[in-house]
Design a protein that fits this description.
CATH superfamily: Superoxide dismutase, copper/zinc binding domain
Low-confidence stretches: 1-22
Distance between the termini: 36 Å
Helix content: 10-25%
Strand content: 35-45%
CATH architecture: Sandwich
Strand order of the largest sheet: 5-4-8-9-1-2-3-7-6
Number of domains: 1
CATH class: Mainly Beta
Oligomer: single chain
């Protein structure tokens, strides 16, 4: 029995070590609230999924009057938040969010583009309310290669 527990502990330790020494880390992008959503904060973490990029969002809130259940559209634009350009990727197959016990909302998306492509170009992420909630951009974040998520 003790051998089995030791083996299980070794397996868990090895798997954790493998995760912490991986060279393929996520990238954190701060989301800046627009004038229509002042006072709110947000963040998205990008992770590499082979030839796709996964996005995990956390936002603290949305403009008052947003319809519930909260639904949000997300886009990757070619260009920066300061100089918005055309939509490069729309990530709107699934638009529902999940309310968190702490004040805020989480949701995730994926885009059919490698994370390295997004990091090497000038792209931005836009979070927009649905038409029944005003169809306004509420967050934007410039995708830049900074440091890995810890």
């Amino acid at each position: 029995m003790e051998l089995r527990n030791s083996l299980a502990a070794l397996m868990v330790t090895a798997s954790l070590l493998g995760c912490t020494t991986s060279s393929d880390h996520g990238v954190s992008v701060p989301l800046v609230a627009t004038r229509q959503n002042t006072g709110q904060i947000g963040n998205v973490t990008l992770t590499n999924w082979d030839k796709q990029t996964g996005f995990s969002f956390f936002i603290s809130g949305v403009p008052s009057g947003a319809s519930l259940p909260l639904r949000l559209y997300t886009f990757i634009n070619k260009s920066s938040c300061q100089q918005p350009g055309p939509v490069a990727y729309a990530m709107n197959d699934h638009v529902n969010t999940e309310r968190q016990p702490i004040r805020g909302w989480t949701f995730s998306r994926s885009a059919p583009v490698a994370m390295s492509v997004l990091l090497s170009g000038e792209y931005s992420i836009v979070v927009r309310s649905t038409p029944d909630s005003g169809n306004v951009d509420i967050f934007c974040g410039d995708i830049r290669q900074e440091g890995p998520v810890k």
